Amino acid sequence: MHALARAATVVAAGLIAGTAAQAQIKIAHVYGKTGPFEAYAAQSHNGLMMGLEYATDGTMEVNGEKIEVIEKDTQLKPDIGKALLAEAYGDDEVTLAVGPVSSGVALAMLPVAEEYEKILIVEPAVADSITGENWNRYIFRTGRNSSQDAVANAIAIGAEGVAIATLAQDYAFGRDGVAAFKEALEGTGATLAHEEYVPTDTTDFTAAAERIFQAMDGVEAESKKLFIIWAGGGNPMGKINAMDPSRFGVEIATGGNILAALKAYRDLPGMEGATYYYHAIPQNPVNDWLVKEHMARFDGPPDFFTAGGMAAGIAVVEALKKAGSTDTDDLIAAMEGMEWETPKGKMMFRAEDHQALQSMYHFRTKVEDGVDYGIPELVRELTIEDLPIPVRN
Questions:
Q1: Alpha-carbon separation of residue 125 from 22, 172, 176, 308, 356 (angstroms)
Q2: Where is the signal peptide (predicted)?
Q3: Do domains 21-144+282-358 and 147-275+361-386 have the same CATH topology?
């Protein structure tokens, strides 16, 4: 072969090899980096990246291709989230997307996944309707839904002779949460005596609390509880507790939350509820790695949404491995019924609605010297088998 021809062949081979080496699987993280849920978003992204790292043994590579994560900020606005997801699928040509933080944003994004026929892994938005009435086959959720919160908390605090009032934010997360909780209480012997909804940005709970107290004052029950379903700031629990609900025989109850929010739990020793995650509760190798690495990298333990983000990252890698391709239909087939290990132990995508079934944790608040928040001490793990989560689509 002529020397120039040989040289051209070598160059062409090098270009082909270079192209192959640069092959990438693009994933979009579409989430509310700025706004009231900024803390949730930061945890979710850290967890996602750690999950991808853990599942790829640090290579950030799967099936011989590098993983590239593209970040997009919804600013917690549904119209922006919808546009950014379309941009990710259409212009960036991502294989799949993960996010968002807010249920309202998630509901706006669901039809985009269907339009582009691309997978959206919802993490950590909670509203039941995401994998319920608004669901489509391209939606999977690693985060827990309102029903999982509701059923777990109903098991934790519902009992014969207990009357419960609820306080929740007036949007999908709060409304779906209360509806699911009300349904979950059936069969526990407890009754839902009053529902109260307030705007998401409420900071003064005086009027709402007085309505709750007056409603509960006329209820005959052995035990009265106010169950609070809340996301973000405002500190309704602390502010209502400062109003001395015990005057009306009312005890505050709520589910788990991020570490910053647990500071308000310190004033409520012995309070019971159910939580999605607390770093000291799960005992498994994935959580051991997460806690150790998070302490080293961020000088503190992983939080609520860090664990959720990691579960999503591991799910992405396991799905790509199982499918052996980036084709959407292959990924859906691989993910339906897929089981994988997370910081919470085993999760499983239910085939009917692609909701991740998972453990929850019945806790009792404990106060310790030197700890500036109420510690959710495990009462018992509520496993997948313990939680009858309805299919709502």
A1: 33, 10, 12, 10, 13
A2: 1-23
A3: yes
**pLDDT tops 50 at residue 5:** no
Task: Return the percentage of the chain with pLDDT > 90, whole number.
Answer: 89
For the chain, domain boundaries: 21-144+282-358, 147-275+361-386
8 Å CB contact between 158 and 152: no
DSSP state of 129: G
Domain 21-144+282-358 coded CATH 3.40.50.2300: yes
* Spatial CB neighbours of 329, under 8 Å, sequence gap ≥ 6: none
Contacts of 34 (CB under 8 A, 6+ apart): 41, 73, 75, 76
Determine the topology of domain 147-275+361-386 in CATH.
Rossmann fold (3.40.50)
Condensed to tens digits (0 to 9), the pLDDT of residues 230-264 reads 988 888 999 999 999 999 999 999 999 999 999 99
The answer to whether residue 16 scores a pLDDT higher than 60 is: no
Whole-structure pTM value:
0.89
